[in-house]
Design a protein that fits this description.
The protein is α+β, with helices and mostly antiparallel strands. The protein has 2 domains: 217 residues, Rhopdopsin 7-helix transmembrane proteins, CATH 1.20.1070; 151 residues, Alpha-Beta Plaits, CATH 3.30.70.270. Strand 4 and strand 5 form a beta hairpin. The chain is elongated, with a radius of gyration of 30 Å. The N and C termini lie far apart (73 Å). The structure holds guanosine-5'-triphosphate. Guanosine-5'-triphosphate (GTP) binds next to strand 1, helix 9 and helix 10.
């Protein structure tokens, strides 16, 4: 039969391996903040184990505070993962929780039973909260939340059983050392070792997933406006066109160009120009439906593809966007700034010869007319011009 000291040593070694692994992973993947908290949480856990070995002479409640605090740090890291950002007041929250625990454990210090009951019930609650964080996130991978739940769920159940036994079982309510409770403590340490490796593995998988998402985003989004970039738009638009053609449903394209944008850059600077581009992207988002594809086509040119939308519906949408944009006054370092947009509109005719590029060409000609006719207006394309199709890619 394994004794407590051996089990503790195995768990401590597993923790060291996990902490070192996660620290290396966090150095390699600096963009994913959560892994740093997860590594810090495990380091906290290791400190708790070390303090446990050193008690006495150190009081046992010190180790209980460190181990319980580890759950709070890991939970915080999982929240940062969910929000994809650093959350404020980490140190303050951790200090307050640490102080509250320190005080509670200090009061309970002479009772191993109550110290364990308190520490285990906090762990059960934190397991539940940590599971919840991942379920609130749409990972797009159903297996990961399930594995996370299994891992934290079993861990929580082991702690729940421990809490209940120390609360209600007459044998455990009398014990004064871990050795006297070897049956449950052995399970606790063995499960803890497996849990640590499972948790570290999950941390690395979640970090990889986040990096993959970031890479996919970088490949498909325009960094300034976060709209679809040209390549991603073309891919999605070709699909939308094929679907529309198959269902014989109308589809319209709006090509937009901010008016006199060069003079905005010249008069207010490039930074303000960028601010205008960002604001216009948000404006488009606010007016588009979820099915619409919005893209920064290049420079100060934007495209919106409207599936299931005919020429008249698209015209009123384009006019809504144009009019409301003319009323937007931006607060820039040089004072208030308002700009306008010109729009070219083209609708599919489901001609077999029609392509995305011929549609764009038609919208571009309409846009050119809008500029020629004084800007801040919407012009419609006349229809499919076969001359525009020469050399078009289907
Ligand atoms: N700030 C900023 N400017 C950009 C960006 N991309 C392109 N531009 C500028 O956008 C301006 C486009 O100017 P033009 O194509 O001459 O057109 P315009 O001044 O908008 O005039 P019209 O289209 O005829 O109304 C150029 O000065 C580009 O340098 C960008 O990412 N940020």
């Amino acid at each position: 039969m394994l004794d407590i000291k051996t089990l503790m040593l195995v768990l401590a070694l597993a923790t060291v391996v996990s902490v070192v692994g996660l620290l290396i992973a966090s150095l390699l993947n600096r963009q994913v903040l959560a892994i740093r908290y997860w590594a810090a949480g495990l380091a906290c856990f290791f400190t708790g184990l070390f303090l446990q070995v050193a008690s006495p002479p150190l009081p046992l409640w010190l180790s209980a505070v460190a181990i319980t605090q580890a759950y709070f740090v890991i939970w915080w890291g999982t929240r940062c993962y969910r929000f994809s950002q650093r959350l404020p007041r980490f140190w303050l929250v951790m200090m307050l929780i640490g102080l509250a625990q320190g005080l509670t454990f200090f009061i309970l210090s002479d009772s191993l039973r109550w110290s364990i009951v308190f520490h285990s019930s906090v762990a059960v609650v934190m397991c539940g909260l940590t599971i919840r964080e991942l379920w609130k996130l749409n990972l797009g991978q159903p297996l990961l939340p399930l594995f996370w739940t299994l891992l934290w769920g079993v861990h929580g159940l082991v702690y729940l059983r421990r809490t209940l036994l120390y609360l209600f079982d007459s044998h455990y309510s009398q014990v004064t050392s871990f050795e006297q409770a070897i049956e449950i403590e052995a399970l606790n340490y063995l499960e803890g070792t497996v849990f640590l490796y499972g948790f570290s593995l999950m941390c690395v998988i979640l970090t990889t997933l986040r990096l993959q998402q970031a890479l996919r985003r970088q490949a498909t989004r325009d960094p300034l406006t976060d709209l679809l970039n040209r390549r991603a738009f073309e891919e999605a638009a070709l699909n939308a066109l094929a679907l529309g053609r198959r269902g014989q449903r109308p589809l319209t394209l709006l090509l937009m160009d901010l008016d006199k944008f060069k003079s905005i850059n010249d008069q207010h600077g490039h930074k303000t120009g960028d601010q205008v581009l960002g604001a216009f992207a948000e404006h488009l988002h606010a007016h588009a439906r979820t099915a619409d594809l919005i893209c920064r086509f290049g420079g100060e040119e934007f495209v919106v593809l409207l599936p299931d939308t005919d020429r008249d519906q698209a015209q009123s949408m384009a006019e809504r966007i144009r009019r409301s944009w003319a009323e937007v006054v931006l607060d820039t370092p040089n004072g208030p700034l308002a700009t306008t947009v010109s729009i070219g509109l083209a609708q599919t005719c489901h001609d077999p010869a029609e392509t995305l590029y011929s549609l764009l060409e038609q919208a571009d000609q309409a846009l050119y007319r809008a500029k020629q006719n004084g800007r801040n207006r919407t012009e419609q394309a006349d229809g499919l011009r076969l001359s525009a199709l020469e050399g078009a890619i289907v």
